Every structure is written in C-alpha cells, then in structure tokens.
Request: fold
Amino acid sequence: MDAMTPAQKQKIIDDIERSTPERRRAESKAPTPAEQARLDRAGKKMGRPKIGNGTRVVSVTVEVDLLERADAYAAGAGVKRSELFTRGLRTVLG
Reply:
C-alpha cells in the first residue's frame, strides 16, 4: 500500500465508497413505466397460488403414532401433509 501514489489510493477509496448501498441507492434511477410494469407483473407471481378463498395456518394436536402414519402415507402418495389433511377433511365433510 505504501508503494501506491496518492491518486491510486484515492481511486481505491472512491471505488469502495461508490459500492456502498447508500451510494448505489442515491445513484439509481426510477424505473421506466415499462420496467415498472414488468416489476409489478413479477411481484404478482410470487408466493403460493390462491386456492378457493385462500388458506389459513392452524395448529392441530395429533397423536404421534397417527401423525407418523399420516406422514408415511403422504410421502407414499407424493403429497404434502397439508394436502393429505385437506383431502381427509373433504372426505369427512363432503
């Protein structure tokens, strides 16, 4: 570092300062309407697809042995535990 000229040292300092998040935000520009439309479309695709009226997380107490059997059945059927529970509720409720 001592072999560097003051100009070389300043260039390194400027590069580091330019790479900070605050500086990048200050130097960034607002997206064009076309870019914003593309960003809006991409944002709508994120997350799980809505099923019916949506979903809700619930906490259910299940016996350990029964849960292990359910997990094994779900794995064998190639479905997730929540899908297995949903199918069971639909079967019971009609």
